[in-house]
Design a protein that fits this description.
The chain is mostly helical. Helix content is about 75%, strand content about 0%.
Length: about 600
Amino acid sequence: MNTLDCLAQARLVERSDEKYCFVHDMILHAAQGAVDENERMTIMKELLQALLPHGYSDDTILFIVVDLISRVGADRVHDSETRLLYAQLNLNAGKKATNTTDFASASTCVKCGVSFLSVGHWDNSYRLSLELFSQSALVEWALGNTEQMMRSLDEVFKNANRFEDTLRAAHVKLTYLRMSGNLVSEAFAYGFQVVEQLGETFPAAPDNGIIVQEMLDTKQLVTGSLNESKLRSLPEMTDSTKKEAMAFLEEMLRCSYQIQSIHFPLLACRMVRISLKYGWTKSSCVGLASLALSLVTVFSDFSEGYSLAKTSMSIAGSDKDKRVHCSMLMITYGMINIWKEPIQAILPQMKDVYNMSLKYGLIDNALVTGMLHAYRAFFTGSLLKPFSKEVALYMRNNLERHKRRLMHLCVAPIFNGISCLRGISSKSGAYNVDEFITEQHLAEALRNKETTFCECMLAIKLMCSFIFRRLDEIKPIARQYLELFERQGSASAQFINIYCIFYGGLLSLHYYRESQDQFWLDRAEHAIQKMEVWTAESVWNFENKLFLLQAERYYAFGEMDRAAEKYKLAQKSSKKHRFVHEEALACELAASFHMKA
């Protein structure tokens, strides 16, 4: 102690709470370098043995222990029991680091644990090997290290003794396939293979009548005060197979939504029915919220869907595990509440979900929520300069930290759309609206069955082309894709539909005025009909858009007085409901109308 006090007086170490530590890492490294390597190893091993008994109960000491283990290294430990002990301690530390979302530390611990496995470890230490490589796959996926993730997955799938032992790895693989950008169809097929082995089968091509009846039957089981009370009193699910099935069905819901598959409502209904029969699990609220979303997208039953979503939020609110909330809130805020509540009020809530997801290590949920927020902020008229910085930061974090290709592909059109609207120059000159989303991009997305992504790109292209009056260039794409998405009835009320239909309707009315082609009038009538339905649900979000479409329709039919009245109403409603960009659009179209009237 006297020696330590002397070092403290020399300001080489400092004392705090009965502990001494070096005042700078360089002093520590210099002290270590002054000790012979063999002697240093002896000291570390002695220290390791002294701390080991305390590492089981104290997390702080556990991480000191595994740090010492990594410094000693696997090549200096030859006793088989000691090697297994060190591997297990690193696994324990890796799991704890994962739970605190410190994935970099978790990766270091797991790699160190793997290094202590001996030859033939799959035969001699099966359970430890399985857990280490399963944990490695999860951690490396969180970090975006796909090559290391795939090596760990291969280890598990090659050496696992039974299907149940592969489930953790299978979940990582399914998520990876879904988020890769061009493998979502493979992910969907793989997911069905897994859930079938877990006892949940689905028809390959379900009939619409089957879907409707299943939704009606399931809706009756969960709506109404008595059924809501029953939901709240469900016991915790104990069947491990059904728990696994629920986790995979939740991931399958995300796949299904991406490709706008008709399986989405069936998956949601199945999750609700499993919960009612076997009890409540962490995925149950997501199943309930997804049923609410199905009521919106399939039946256009906005009020019932909104009410059921509120029920799922209320039930989730009683769960102390905040991770349960994130996926459910992403669905509720991002996909359901937009049909009932002012969308500007929802944007801060989505930011909160994004930050909460990152806090609890739900990287994929955070990235999807961030992407949904970006689209909603873009189309609702956020200030472009600060918004462009937010989107750029999101994209940079994704590329550098998370490396999710799909998220980059989805958000890049938003960033390019912002640049286009701001008139920012590219390397080749002025930003051209025709360059950043081409017909080839749209066709490729459809080939990969990324239907939602295709419609997102289409909406941005329609908007930018209409604003910059690039009407001749966009006409062939509008003719091909507007009718395609209109015919596709599997998801009749997704957020992006609003803007495809709004700008598609405005373009169609322009083309109809020029050509009197019935094709364009049919597209316009469809747009107005949809906007009338949506306005009945939320005057705030849709009234101004309906007025502007009606104004352009009256203009196309030569009803000038009624057109002039609707233009004024569109301007007034846009201003009242804080859609400043659509107010500007209404003013511009009204000016053009009055000049030609």
